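Hello again,

I reread your note about wanting to compare the complex against the isolated chains. To keep things tidy I'm splitting this into two emails, and this first one only covers the full assembly. Below are the input lines as submitted, including protein chains and any nucleic acid or small-molecule components. They are followed by the predicted structure of everything together. The single-chain runs will come separately.
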Amino acid sequence: MTMVTKKMKKSKNSNSIWRQPLAVVGIGIIVIWTLLAIFAPWIAPYNPNAQDAAKFLAPSAAHWMGTDELNRDILSRVIFGARISLPYSLLLVALSATLGSIVGAISGYAGGKIDSFLMRVTDVFFAFPGIVLAMAVAAALGPQIRNAVIAITIVAWPVYARLVRGLILNAKQNDYVTASSLLGSSSLRTLIVDLRPNLSGPVFVLAALEVGNALLLLSGLSFLGLGAQPPASEWGSMVSLGAENFDRWWVGLFPGLAILTAVLAFTFIGDALRDAMDPRTAKALRD
Amino acid sequence: MRTKPVSDEKSQRKRFLSGNGFVPFILRRLLTSVLLVFGVTFISFSITQLVPGDPVAANLGQSAYSDPKIVAAFKVQFGLDKPVPVQYVKYVSKLLHGDLGISLSSKRPVLDDLKEYFPATLEIALVAVFLALVVGLLLGIISAVTRDRLPDQIIRVFSLTGVSMPAFWTALTAFYLFFFVLGWAPGTGRLAPGADPPPTVTGLYTVDSLIAGDFSTFKQAVAYLLLPAIVLAIYAIGVLTRFTRASMLEILGNDYVRAARAKGLPEITVIRRHVLRPALLSIITVAGVAFSSLLAGSVLVENVFSWPGLGQYAYRAAVGLDLPGIMGVSMVVATVYITMNLIVDILYRVIDPQMRDAS
Amino acid sequence: MDLLTVKNLTVTLATGRGDAAAVRDLSFTVGHGEFLGIAGESGSGKTMTALSLLGLLPHKGRATGSINFDGREILTSSKREYRDLRGKEIAMIFQDPMTSLHPMLTVEVQLTEHLRHHRKVSKDAARQSALELLSTVKIPDPEAALRAHPSQFSGGMRQRIAIAMALACEPKLLIADEPTTALDVTVQAGILKLLHQLRKERNLSVMVITHDLGVLSSLTDRIMIMYAGSEVETGLTSDLLQRPRHPYTKGLIAALPGHTNDAKSSQTKRLLSIEGMPPELGNFPSGCAFHTRCNYAIAACKSELPESIQISDSHRIFCPVDPFSAKASIEGAK
Ligand SMILES: Nc1ncnc2c1ncn2[C@@H]1O[C@H](COP(=O)(O)OP(=O)(O)OP(=O)(O)O)[C@@H](O)[C@H]1O
Ligand SMILES: [Mg+2]
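Full-complex prediction:
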């Protein structure tokens, strides 16, 4: 008999992100930046480090975004900048997502004392002023983009740890995991194999949401002189040249717009992905 | 289950702390908060020790660094000659007496430095959080109420843009526009060059000038304050707008809202009485966290506006590998964060016992 | 003229896979003073039918067709007209009293706010009626109850408060969406008793929604059975429960506790039980949506929408096979 008195779980199938205009715009922007990064040498009108134009030329037909203090073409530098900011932000997110997921998985799997210890550590990192710590680490390691990535990874992993731990605790109560642990096969490895499909989605969405933040922090450190070093055409450090000569508006404006568009694109995509997830996971991602 | 003897003092204390009453709750939260602060000192200490920078080199000039005697004296002066665990124990024991050590870069007690720089940041952060709350709540509510219609679409794009703008660039662009082009903003710093700050009471120039009855300084302080505060607020506005919208939509989906509508109440009553109240409860939580993220975010904004605040101090401390300075800043910001969370938790418990019972 | 006449009501909702009809071409009436029961498995569109009467469909939901209430067409009402209708002319009780009362507002506020809005009565007068309402629904100590928050009451008491709320403006039609589902069996009986009493004391028309046919047997005049958003059978309560004609209704009744033993052989038992799950919104089968679970389905069931077959003035089914008709059983005997 099946008079279903028990409520069937109302599964709202995920909204395709292609139906969300903002997400499509975001994907479009990222595709453009990716193409610009890959084909920079062919697309950029000048060598980004060539100092052969005149100093501080305002935007014109020859130099669409003008030139900087060292006579370099800003458009070319912005295009080449995509080769630094995008891959390093992605790397940064991949590193912190991996680190955080491992900590979260251990915490959720082990439970008990290990769990509460790891979660207290995570709490401490949350309480931390991320950028201050990142600044200190970056300064101590020596100002280099690679070190800035390490510094930010150290402050960025806790969000993933919390998420993964929460998901594992949820799933632990689920039938299929209980079943396999009853059969005595529940090592950490099985747990992860069993749960990977449940974990990878939310972690991926969180990572997508975090790329923008990573890019902001990374260019922020470079802006302060603690990330990419001259003559690298990194967007954040290009903005800092603009800050030194703020009356030449074009020097800082265009690289900043580059950061803004890229971050905005990732935010659009991450937001749409989150909205497409089922509401409970989406809420876990928001908190 | 075996019951433990009641006379066991430890277990009694434990039981008291794990009780459900209001006082045990506060004590428990206070205890975790203090532990968190120590956790923060420990982690910042460890991390800055683990990385290979040399604070001596960072703080002594070229020639002084090549003189072993000066180096040794510097190390002794700042306790850098001791093993790291000893340094940490010493730091903590001094900390318990309210001594945050001597800054390597300013050569002054860190506490004095913080007293000088923190109020400057607090001043813009307070204004920014106020702006963010007013604007963010308003936009978030409009957005939720007009869900998927034009106003909502526009506000969503705005708030997403707000959280995507690099603060240092926004600061620069705003400064160029309002100072250089339009001439509306007075310039960088907290007061005009050469102007005397009001006598220090709180360290907030606006408040202090009012206390001193000096209105022209007050006006000036406000004028200098506004632009950095607005720039700082942009990110928080984005965050709060999005969060408000999300909480409102979550509440709007509740049965009790549907029930309120089924009673035929005007929509404005439904929103005000039935939706906003519970939504505000969760918004309080982010507002607290947003405030401490503003403190951290001020690092980049202060840099552009030459605002002599915690951010500038943190920057100098970081570049100078000034461990006591960095720890001091971390502690201040972390303490604010932790205190905010504490207040929010307590508020939550005080404001709304029904809410808790219901969930 | 009936109090409520619904014709060809179709409700479309936004789902992940695009729009889908949760209620399909539904027609029914509720007479003055009549109790109509609507039953069906979870997801059959009962709640959406109710909400469309109040113009309270979920975000992006749309209703088409015609809803005539008390002599006027209301489906095309403006927001304002709907607001004047809700609570005042048509009131609704929701399924879960734990979530349908506001946790932060006192019982007094929730009992009187719509009364004061619709009737423009003074605070004191509203309070007075609230006290009367609370005694009508048998809440002990109404004075104290007014000052309390919903969390201070048990589920059954909360549902009584919700009923009091619904009755506050003396509506003509009361919709009770699974008023007892979330409650314990003993508490259920109390609520049903209360509904019986209201039926006797007030000239109220009521639409009771449930997925437990047992709840309806003594309460309603007529019952409509829904499956996947469509009507499958409607009849007088006694006719429908004792002589069900649609295989789905038959299955629902067979599944009632106490009925399982009546089945004469294990073979009939198997024939009567309904296997599988109800279809999900957006995945409703073609033709008669029930054909995938029906033991009597023929080819036509899959391809053609069933027409209504009038069995008597008050009894109709949507089933081309009609396996339990007298004719069919004679043929079966051969
Ligand atoms: N807000 C919504 N958006 C989209 N689909 C919805 C929404 N609410 C409900 N549905 C779907 O509409 C269909 C009909 O739902 P409805 O609530 O009317 O069923 P029901 O017969 O009342 O069932 P139950 O016994 O579970 O209350 C279901 O498939 C449900 O999943
Ligand atoms: Mg329902």
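For quick reference: The radius of gyration of chain B is 25 Å.

B.
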